[in-house]
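Below sits our specimen:

——
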Amino acid sequence: MTPRPLTVAIATLSALTALTACNGSPEAGHPNTTPTSPTATPTPTAPSTPEWTPEETAAITAAKARYVAARAAVEKALADPEALNRSGLEKAGNGGEWIIAVIGDARFQERNGWYQSGRAKIFTKKVVSVKLEIEQPEVLLSNCVDSSGVVTRFTRDDKPVPMGPGNGNRHLFSSRLVYAPPAPGGEKMWFLVSEKAAGKC
């Protein structure tokens, strides 16, 4: 039979008392008052920061700047979805599956007679990885975006569109940027090609 927790606790305490008595010094039944040497507390080690090469640092700087520009162009497009210009979005650095999703959102708002006002705030742009040796060089960022200043409105009267309960205003995104030409023969630049929700921040 497995002893109840209380029985186990009492048995453990009895064993410790018996061990103290068997040691003979100090005298059984009396507390040990001999001072002990203090145990050194290990100093926590700060997480190491990756050391980027000059080439990687330049890529990171360019990719972060492109991310901000690409996001700004998307906000401009959603502020006037009827005047959506794909070429303008691409020139700002939007591409891949990301630009397809943006165009889909703009068309959806246009069909419903909506538009978006306000701007989102980007709080952090943390570098997750840098890969410059692959065919399409890549920088992966983790971004915290606050959309509390963004409001979807009706085009007819500028009133806010009633929305259901949300899940907060600050969200974390995993953003992938690649270095590629906008078209065959074009000059290479950084493009935001994918952005996926990664929880709250």
